[in-house]
Structure formats: structure tokens, C-alpha cells
Amino acid sequence: MNLIFKELWHRKTNSLLSLLGLAGVVAFFVGFLTTAEAAKRETLRITRDLGFNLRIIPKATNMDRYWFDGYSDQTMPEDAVERLAAQEGIFMSYNHLMASLKQPYLLDGADVILMGVAPTLTSADKKKRPMGFKIETGTIQVGYQVAQRLSLKPGRSVRVGTSEFTVSKCLVENGTEQDVYVYGTLADIQTALGLPGEINEIKAIDCLCLTSDEEPVAILREELAKVLPEARVIQDRVQADARARQRQMVEGKFGFLIPFLLIVSAVWVGVMAALNVRERRSELGILRALGYGSVPIAGIILMKAVVLGIGGAVVGFFLGNGLAVSVGPGIFKVTAKAIETDWTLLGYAVLGAPVFAAMASFVPAMQAVAQDPALTLREE
User: How many whole angstroms separate alpha carbon 199 and alpha carbon 192?
Assistant: First the structure.
């Protein structure tokens, strides 16, 4: 071991370059794994914020009228969403289930769309945050166009059906049909429309993350038919494809970078080891002439790689972790709190990097063993 440390010190440039190569690959893995959870959550949050891309409506819906009016002319029991959510494994395909009741209504002489929404149901084990905005019982939130047309302000009372509601919020301009929506809790709107316990749509997000060419709709419809045969599912393909491609792109990017970086690093370490063997030809020839066998000679080369691997692991861990903790929160602003030091990665690095370095140095070590000491010393 003393000979190995003397060799490291004697050939500083070669040792330093090998160390930097190993530290670089360790730093990448540590930085990637430290920010991986934040990156995953950030991607999920961004794609989630694209909105619901599935609509589950009564099967008897007149689809021509549905696309023309924007809502179903049929209803189904409110417990349909509970039955769907209770199905084992359903959240693998459907998530963020939100029951709603949408109907046209004449509010103070203005045509509006009443929209009653229930709290979203999500997978409890994944602790997903509910989508949408929270509405208090006895209040309504009005779209931009409705507020402008009726001169509504927060705090004003409005009669809907037989009930009085307080305007809690006037929404900003959305630029879509939602500007003529009036939102309330599902129970309040059911009462106002005289449709207790009824809904006409369940909004959801599909979690298959398959693009349209992979036929996700067929899978979704097959699963829904088992639970709610009285309903049908419609997918917003443009939005669903955008979600799927975004997530597949992130996963594919790192799937390409990891093997590429491993190959480059292995070649780098191997070349450094080969150059080291070439520089030490006479030294290795003398050792062989003194009676050192193949195993000790190969051991010297491989042990040097192991020592460099341990050093590279330590340097790479602190470099990668430092960059992840300091720079990561600025990149993943929504999920910055998920970025923190994971000390278990240091253990994995110290175990993995020496093995990786030894494997990359295996061929040069075999070249050192194969050298004929007589020929080597004669050349010197």
C-alpha cells in the first residue's frame, strides 16, 4: 500500500486526472439522485397543472348536444365517483377524481353556467394535493364575464334557486367558456337546480402517461366498463399527449445521460491507467525480475484504481451534493424543499466508485501482467 501512495504522489498529473474523472461521474450521480425526487415532483406538478384531461359522463349522453352545449344532458348518481375511487388499483390509471354538476341557468337575467364541484379524490398512499380551488358552503365564485355583466363584487348576496349565496370571489379573465361559469359546492348547486345526489360529469387525470399512438383510451375504457358500465370516458388527446411527452422526455433524457457518462468515464479512467502502465514499464519489469508474480503486479494497478475510486467518491459526493443543495432550489422552485443532503449516497459512492475504477483498469492491469520483463529491461 505504501508503494501505491508513493506512485500516486510521484505521478501527480495522471493521478489527478483519474481522480477528477471519477469525481465527475460520482458528482453527477449524487447531484442527479439528490434532485431526482424534486425533479419528479416538479414534472408531476407542471403536467398536473395542465388540468384535467379525462371526462367521465353518463353513457346515455347525446354526444352531439354534449359537444355543442359543453355539458351532458343526462345525470348519474353522485356515488359513482365513490365507486370508481374504491376500485382497487384504479388510481394507477385515473387520479384526481372530481365529481361535478354543470347546467345552464338564468342568473339575474344573465345566461350563466352553474358548476357545482366536489372535493377531489386522490390516492391516499401517494398523498397527492387536491386540484382546483376550495369553495365554502353558502358561497359562489363567479367568472370574469359574469362579474362584469352583473357588476358583482365579493361580499354581495345573490339568489340562486331558493337559496341566497355570498360572492366570495370574482375570478380573473380566463379567456375560455369558464368566464361565464358560476362555481359553488356540489351540494349547493344540486339543491339550487333541484337535482340532489346527481352529477353529470367526473373530471380526472389519466396516470398511464401514454401517447395517443399507444392507445391509452382503450385501456381507460376497458377499466371503466368494469366499475361504471353506465358511464363513458372521453380523453382530451392534445392535453394527454402533452403530459405524456413531457414526462417521457424527462425520463428519457436521464436514461440517455447515465450510460453515456458511465462509458465516457470508464474510457477516461482506462486510458489513464493504460498511460500509467506504459510509463511504469521499466518499474514493472524490475518487479517481475525480482520475482513478483502476475497477481501482485495486477494488484498494484487495481489497488491504485481502488484508492483513486475512494478519493473520487468522497470528492464527487461533496461536489455533487453541494451543487444540488445550492443550485437545485433555484431550478425546482415548486419542490425546492425536497432537495436535501442524503448521506446514504456517500456510502453507495464509496462502495461503487472503487469497483467501477477497478473494472475500468482491468484491461491495463492485464497488459502489465503480460509484459515480458526481459524484453522490457532490454529496451531500457
Answer: 13
